[in-house]
Amino acid sequence: MLTKLEEHLRAAGVDDLVLGVLSGNRDALRLYERLGYRPTWLYLSKFTGRD
After folding, report:
1. For residues 49 and 41, what is the distance between their CA atoms, to the nearest angstrom?
2. Rounded to an integer, what distance in angstroms lies between the CA atom of residue 18 and that of residue 16?
3. pLDDT at site 51
4. How much is the pLDDT for 45?
5. What does the pLDDT read at residue 4?
6. Contacts of 41 (CB under 8 A, 6+ apart)
7. Residue 34: helix, strand or coil by DSSP?
8. Rounded to an integer, what distance in angstroms lies between the CA atom of residue 28 and that of residue 51?
9. pTM listed for this prediction
10. What pLDDT score does 25 carry?
11. Which letter does DSSP use for residue 25 in this model?
12. φ, ψ for residue 34 (rounded to 5)?
C-alpha cells in the first residue's frame, strides 16, 4: 500500500516524503528502512498524565 501511495505522490510531483513512527515500533521502523526511509529528525513529547 505504501509503495502505491509513493507512486501516486511522485506522479503528482511530490519528491520528498516524511512519515512518523513511534520509537518503540521496531517492526514499522524495519519496514520503512527496507523501503529506503532513513531517520532524519528526533521529536520529544511530553503528555500530561502519561509517561
Report:
1. 25
2. 7
3. 63
4. 87
5. 96
6. none
7. helix
8. 22
9. 0.71
10. 95
11. -
12. -65, -30
| Cell matching residue 49 | 498524565
If you search the block for the grid coordinates 513512527, which residue do you land on?
21
Grid cell 507512486 in the structure block, residue: 7
Angle at 18 between CA 28 and CA 29, to 5 degrees: 15
pLDDT, tens digit, 9 for 90 and up, residues 3-38: 999 999 999 999 999 999 988 999 999 999 999 999
Give the phi and the psi of residue 19 in degrees, each rounded to 5: -130, 160
Using only C-alpha atoms, the chain has a radius of gyration, in whole angstroms, of 14
Q: How far apart are CA 4 and CA 11, in angstroms?
A: 11
Residue 2 grid coordinates: 505504501
